[in-house]
Structures are given as C-alpha cells and as structure tokens.
C-alpha cells in the first residue's frame, strides 16, 4: 500500500518476502523471450564487449562516440551550440508561460531560478567558446579547451547515443534481469534496489551520463524513491573503465591499469557502504514522485533468483515497446536531457576550471594537507596535497598535476581522483539539474566530496604501500 501526499508517495508497509513457489512466473513465449535475448545482446555488446581498437582494448560505445567527436568536430560543435541555445531558450519560454506554449507541453524545461540562470549563462558562453572569442587564456587546453572541445562535445554525444541502446536494454527486460540477480548484493550493502546495479553498470562501462539517464527514467516510473536516487547519483555515478585507462595512460602507468582499476573499484565499494549509512544520504526521505513500483520482495536460492530474473525479464519484454519505438524514444529523451544539462555543465565547469587554473585557491586549501600526505608516506607531498582537493573542479586536473612525480605519488593521485566521483565541471551540475526534485544540493555535494576524500586518502595510501611492498609498483 502507498499513500499520496501532495506530489509525493510513500510505501506504508513492506510486503513479506515470498519464495519461488509463491510467484506466478511468466510463460516463456517465443517472441518475448527472443526480444529479451536480442535486447540483452545488443546492450551487452555495445556497452560491455571488449574489442581491440587502435592498439587499445575498449568497447563499441566508446569507439562510436570517439569516432563521432573525432571525425566530425565541426558538426559536433554546431550541434552542441544549437542544443545549448535550445535548452536555454526553451527554459526561458517555459518559465515565462507556466510550461505550455501554443499547445506544446514545455513543463519538463521548467526549473528553479538558479538553474534557469545557469542555462542562460550557458547560452551566453557557448557562442564565445564556439567562435573562440575573448582572451586566449579562456581557451587553453586546461580551461575552455577542456570544457568545450572535450567535456561538452563528449557529454553532448554520449547521452543521446547511449540513451538509444540503454532504452532498448531497459524497456525489453534488461533492467528486470540485472536488478533481480543483483538484489542480494545491492540491498544489504548499499540499501538500494537490485535494479540500481544497472545504473552503476552503465556508468562503469559507458558514462556517468548514461547511468544518470537510467536513474532519472526509473525514478520517474516509481522504481526509486528519493533516497535511492541520492545514493545512486552520489555513490555510483562512476568514471568509466575507458576513462580510467586514459588516466593510466596520462600517468604513463598503462601497464599498471589492472592495479589502478582494482583499487578504484574497491574504493568505490568501501566508500559507498559507509556513506549510505550517514548524513546527508541517510536523511533523505523515502518519497516517490510517481506511484511506487518497488521490487518484488523475494527470498530463494541462487537458482531461484535466476528463474525469477528470466521470468521478470520476459514479462517486461512482452509488455514493452518494439525495438524501433524504444530506440526512437530513447534518442528523443536523450536529446531533451542533453538540452537541459549541457549549458549548466558549460557554465559551472568553465568557472571551476578557471578558478583552478588562475587562482591560488586550491594551493592554499591543499597546503595544510602537505604534512598529512607526508605522514602517510606518499612522496612529493607538496605537489600531491593540492591534487587531493582540486579534483572537485574536474577529476582530470589532479592527474595533470602529478605527471612528473614518483610512481607511488602518481598511483595515489590517479586512484584518488577517479574515486572521489563528485566534480563540478560536469557530474555535479548534472546531478543538481536532473534531480532538483530530490533535491541534490550544492552543499550536499561539497560535503560528500570532503567526506569521500577523508575516507579515501588513508585508504588509497594503504593500498599504495601494500602494492609497493609486494613489488607491484
């Protein structure tokens, strides 16, 4: 049973767990089974299949995005400019007209005054970046060049392309299958539904943008409450496997990639287990914004979970859209989401990178940490200390600061930077804008960044020394 209060819903009582004999499993009809298998294969190949490409191992999703942004930079630039302008203009129109103009529903573009201002700021900044107007320092590779030519281009392409394939996967049974199998792990460890494993998987193998897109869709369908969303967004919007490889290559440590990735994975799990149990996450209400659709309470053997997972997936595929309908809806939703967040990312991210590059703020903040880093036995402490803080602007900046340091310092900063998760060049404003109805607030993200850093600094230092002692660094 659920109770509606205003525009939110709460679940009054948790149903008792049932076993496999108490559940009416779906019949395995040929076409629904085939739809699920094809959709699962499409998603698995596109996001997960390792393939050699230009001397590296990557996934088809990364190849597609890299080819689009690399082969057609001018087209992507025009597209990025246009979609930022569209997002800002449509938001302004929606705010001025109560969400409807000439019979068109623009309510999805309505937002708070702060995010309206940020989208408008994006509208003003985008032409400056596109036409390279203004002073040269605005367009350097570590500031405007990073934001416009790398992050804006990548996010602008990643979301609509990823949305096509992830929507096919989700709408035709993939979410039910992965979620059911992951339930025994996700609920006790992280206090989220098993289906949250798909959001995390989408971030690991594709992009945090795709993971957040999945989270938004499930939230709007009643599959998550606000605390679920807050947890998933702040603890599992991870840097992709491919980008961890970029970090390793930048540090000239690509042969150590398995060690870097293994430490990163361990750090994300440990910090997630701890942070979900303390404020601010633990204080977020368990409210839904749609009629609640919680996961079926279930208890059984591993074989029972597999049977239930297949049954739930086939049932979803039977009720779901066609492949063409799911792809079209995913692409349209992806474009809409991109128009909502890309201007915000540009405005906030440019401010953050300029602050990092042209002010002593982060050096000043990092200076008190120098003796702490030194006490932990990490070399080049004076360089490493600011790198532990500056990651809040953009996770790649700390990596650039330590390219000339000792191996242990490189490993420490590389793992720490990708494990901090929250940075304001992209994922921070994306969370705040996409989930303003949770809400995810700036102060919460700053607090969680600090808390993660406090947890991770000694943890990563310990891992660094352990690997060095084993002769692996």
Automatic annotation (TrEMBL):
- Which InterPro entries does the entry link to? Gate_dom
Which keywords appear in this protein's UniProt record, sorted alphabetically?
A: Membrane, Transmembrane, Transmembrane helix
Pfam families, sorted: Gate
In the UniProt record, does the keyword Transmembrane helix occur?
Answer: yes
Query: Where do transmembrane segments lie in this chain?
Result: 33-51, 72-96, 116-134, 146-170, 231-251, 257-276, 337-357, 369-397, 409-427, 447-472
- The segment(s) forming the Nucleoside transporter/FeoB GTPase Gate domain are 153-251
- Listed name of the protein: Nucleoside transporter/FeoB GTPase Gate domain-containing protein
